[in-house]
Specification:
The structure is a homotetramer of 342-residue chains. Chain A is of the alpha/beta class. Chain A has two domains: 2-67, Alpha-Beta Plaits; 87-338, Aldolase class I (TIM Barrel, Alpha-Beta Barrel), CATH 3.20.20.70. Helix content of chain A is 35%, strand content 16%. Chain A is elongated, with a radius of gyration of 23 Å.
Chain lengths: 342, 342, 342, 342
């Protein structure tokens, strides 16, 4: 932590800052400058130490600003864990050079419909099946999902098709039942900072797929991953799905593809991109999915449906079979170029 | 819903849109224009009808854009419920001309500390006591609150001081225990779209204090209130606490005071402003609290502490006794002007 | 400037950073920490020195991040100039306890119309008249203003009414002609970083009214003021007029009232709020204008028109005579409370 | 335009809206719905007609909201001009399947330095040379460029190397001199809505390279292009260079790659991506440049320098020769895949 003093701060003010730091058992390092003094605290503070110290120092006379020098996450950081994390689910590998395609309808609407969708996903060559049983919906009047009935359908269809499955879990008390039926636990964007849920997911043995909140910074997102990792679950997959946008005339969210590059520089965890929610528009999905591969993503999650016009939700961002098959063919060609296994 | 066709859309394309609307049992109203045609659907659609229709229509040739004509919330809307909602908790009134001041420390740190803070709140003339027992913290390494022990302290201190109490509840399964100990249930900004929690709070008899999510639109926020109202709980208090900012050099969040005016025009629910989280800086709190009263808010929530420099969290945005007493005096003078009871 | 090294940075990497700093003639201060080293540069750098140094240091191995410790503006800073700036235009005072009301139509539409608007402004008790002769319009097909003809009308009406005048100047080559006809030069939000214009305005003797750009940080805005101040013109007025918003359902821009408090803590320059552009909705203007006064603003700029429904532009955010007279009466009552002269 | 009435709006209120529309010489189309009435205006309005009408209608009782049905731009729209625009500068082609690489230093620092940079650009296989003679700098204390002397250097180096050149022009009165020395006129992000400059650029015969403003919507950006097109200059190149971000911990701006797809669906103009300013970090530039090609961009603009550590500005986002040569090789391989000529 660095405390920057105001111009013309007096020696007494500088000493008061130094004293306040010593009073917390830390050693200040005073750096007099040409026109203002900075005071460094060359120690690794816990978040609580940092916050308490900020409370104290921000109230002292002559203090101009206080800034942080260290990342707040550890287990998620490349600094502690150099090699990329490889996540294995059955035969399926995610990360460390393995490009994962997760596809399926927005929500599980019934056994027949879901089975048809799963067969389409498989026919197109994808091996991970998505589909919501519990649906977080902005309006209470919208379809909320088939719930546990939906989980059973997912499990049944997984057995019949051999596909790996992923579905969203919305609260801590449902982690167990979701983990019994499905391979990968998805934490939705609206739940990224639902800490009881993150902790419970961290206690589960299932890989956790963590979507970025619409206004989460990279650090907040990695700290959410840290909650899961800190419970002993090393298998976290980060998913960029679009952030809050000031222009929503043509798209629903703002896909932040650079976040893939930033995460690849900061963390060892795999990074997936969801261009369906990221753009909200079916015709933009293939282009952004391919751009994601080239930008270094470890996979994509896309909404597909045998008949998008009949989907109960998100039809306007959903690919049909022809579109999805076309995208898979493109990705396969591109994977040689990108140096990943698909 | 209005479907706007592209320039030069053919008669066949226009008819296909009209047909697709009729196929859903709705009657289209075709409006030919100078240069492009619009097609209205003069019916009140459910969110699912709207979404399904969007999925169908967005895929048809010649469609340029689709826009909504009705608000998605009902119970929260002034259109259905003209008179402002007055919420009564014991002797305390919130809304409909009654200005509420909710004050207290960020978190409950122990019985002695909390009692001292409560006495300070009371001495300054406020009647609603805040304080977190369950703390949603960005980092897993931060102090997470005293939990149920904290609830007991809040209840004990409430009995001794006669103050009304409010505390945050972070998950659906904790609603019951929080409601047993505390008067008002706070839903934090990070939980604004935690639907299981909203539903459970809606089933409780306690008033629900609903903070705006950092990237929530006004409509999304009112729809979150709608979840609570829809369960039969009419006592929802909206709280603006700052939204996501592109400039965080001098403040932590971006306080959206105009939201007070917008809500007052759209809903009958009371609106509270939290300038402590809204700015993140103690010296900016009094000015923004007073501005909130003048802008039409029904109250404020502020962080206060007998010794902010010793607070375990949020010290840099917390008022001490002198600052809070000064603010209360200012608000009292201003309340005559603003025409509210304090 | 502080350079923070990565965890596990080697001694050789640390020395390479120190060397690179010395190679630029500066003295590094190495601060070894528990887990990582920071290297301070305790000198006041010019922006170019800083940028060059960043270019060098960001490429060295082992560097984690580089952060700034000093504000980039000087002349605009309270650190160099403690007393609030008082700007005098004829008899009219702006800043240092004098609350200015600038009112008038969006654009000058003709002599008769403008004279009528001016008489209304005067009748309501305001003394500064606004009105655009050059209009920056998003579409090339919109009315662009009467230009020099408009300037002449403003000057003529000013002579007849005794009002002080302000109008926008859109390019450096027009500063001279605008300054000949009008008292205060307005730099619009879209021109905040039009540096040739800022420099030319800085060479003029007229006060400069500098609107904040929709995505400008406080520092960028103060640096834009610095361009004017640096040319020898000390009379700069800052104007908050709403920033970019992610939710534009109910308002046009997002009024950042906290910016008033931040500027009051950072600069000696007067701060005006424009709630007309800040909200874009006439019914929200009075509430936010009053909140601005209470938040510490030195004045407001509002759009008024004898018949807003007939205004050529911005009618939906314009106050009519009754609304404006009501606002002025409210502000007068409130000015006692706020301790400002109106 | 569609006017949506409030719930329970009376017949008299509906008729008043219809009358107000007729009073402007337009024919209203009333659409009674289940629960609320909408009133369409099936005519193509000019921006002024629309704004005046909004001013009138927004003041009438019973009106809930007013929404637009048509795009405000015409010349830039694909609806009027289906085929992609191909821009030819000497031998160089931009757009319509031709991928352009524009590279060079941030600013022209001297003849020797610029010549060396140009030779490096040419050696790596790029054919368009960038470099600023006039530099828009946030701080008045930063290097502002060599100005006309810089233009002469650009021209001289272009003659010696045969490269096509592009440089920024910051004000209308400099368009002529810049156009005399350089092939393509760049309008910077901060000047996107400098209308006098856009108009003057529109009168020039030079292609205009239009950077997106940091908070410009797609429609505002296309309307800025419309200013140029409307003066008779058909050769406009759109450049996405990153928009305003709420998280600037790891990047300088937020690159909006989906904007490429949106523009490709809306306009016939070529679209270029600038990953140097878009990310602000050299190591992220190659990945995002390649993603841009795959996302459908018609080219990239990148900052390169023989010795980035010695560049006077933007060194931390600048590629050196090895990095740029690597990127060019990657793009060449990828161009087969993407189906573009490089």
């Amino acid at each position: 932590m660095i405390v920057v003093m105001q111009l013309g701060a007096t020696e007494a003010q500088i000493q008061a800052v130094a004293e306040a730091i010593r009073a917390k058992g830390l050693e200040p390092l005073v750096m007099p400058g040409d026109d203002r003094t900075a005071i460094g605290i060359p120690a690794s503070l816990t978040p609580d130490q940092r916050m308490t110290l900020e409370g104290v120092l921000s109230r002292l006379e002559g203090v101009n600003k206080i800034s942080e020098t260290s990342h707040p996450y550890k287990l998620a950081s490349q600094e502690y864990h150099r090699d990329p994390t490889l996540i294995q689910v059955g035969e399926e590998k995610i990360g460390a050079g393995h490009f994962a395609v997760m596809a399926g309808p927005c929500s599980v609407e019934g056994y027949e419909e879901y089975r048809e969708a799963a067969l389409m996903v498989k026919a197109c060559g994808a091996r991970i099946l998505r589909g919501g049983a519990f649906k977080p919906r902005t309006s209470p009047y919208s379809f909320q999902g088939l719930r546990v009935e939906g989980l059973k359908i997912i499990q049944q269809v997984a057995r019949e098709t051999g596909l790996v499955t992923i579905t969203e879990v919305m609260s801590a008390d449902m982690v167990e039942v979701v983990a019994e039926h499905v391979d990968i636990l998805q934490i939705g964007a609206r739940s990224m900072q639902n800490y009881p849920l993150l902790i419970e997911a961290g206690k589960s043995q299932r890989p956790v797929f963590l979507k970025r909140g619409p206004s989460a910074t990279i650090d907040e997102w990695l700290l959410a991953a840290e909650y899961v990792l800190n419970e002993g679950n090393p298998n976290v997959i980060m998913c960029e799905r679009g952030i809050i946008a000031f222009d929503r005339t043509y798209t629903r969210n703002l896909l932040d593809l650079t976040a893939v590059q930033v995460l690849k520089a900061q963390t060892h965890l795999p990074v997936i991109v969801d261009p369906s929610h990221g753009t909200g528009v079916a015709k933009f999905v293939p282009g952004m999915a391919k751009a994601a591969m080239v930008a270094g993503a470890d996979g994509i999650m896309v909404e597909v449906h045998p008949d998008p016009a009949e989907a109960k939700s998100d039809g306007s961002q959903t690919l049909d079979q022809a579109q999805f098959a076309g995208l898979m063919a493109d990705l396969r060609r591109l994977s040689d170029y990108a140096g990943v296994k698909l």
